[in-house]
Amino acid sequence: MLLNDWIDQVGGPDCAGALLSEKPRTVMSWYRFDRAPSLRTAGRIVRLTAGAVDYNGIYGPWAAVLAERDGVAA
């Protein structure tokens, strides 16, 4: 599952932030691809979701976004 899909599933950035002890603004910055979760936070996400969201679901979309921003085919 992709991180953004999980954020939507749990009720949005406010709910996801509460579950992760993160500010909703921080979660929204991940959702909009303004910044990526730290590795430590990504590990918490993987554990909290019991692996439903894995590292690929967190960082995979970032590869596509960065490639698109740089004009490189993903």
Mean pLDDT: 94
DSSP, total strands: 0
Radius of gyration: 12 Å
Q: What fraction, in percent, of the residue positions are helical?
A: 55-70%
Q: Characterize the overall form.
A: globular
Strand portion: under 5%
Query: Alpha-carbon distance between the termini?
Result: 19 Å
By helix and strand content, what is the structural category?
mainly alpha
Describe the oligomeric state of these chains in a short phrase: single chain
Helical run tally: 5
Query: In sequence order, what are the helices and strands, one letter per element?
Result: HHHHH
Major sheet attributes: none
Q: Low-confidence spans: pLDDT under 50, at least 5 residues? A: none
Characteristics:
68% helix; 5 helices; mainly alpha; 74 residues; single chain
Question: Can you give me a brief rundown of this structure?
Answer:
The protein is built from five helices and no strands.
Question: Can you walk through the features of this model?
Answer:
With 74 residues, the protein is mostly helical. It is built from five helices and no strands. Helix 2 (13-20) crosses helix 3 (24-31). The chain is globular, with a radius of gyration of 12 Å. The two termini are 19 Å apart.
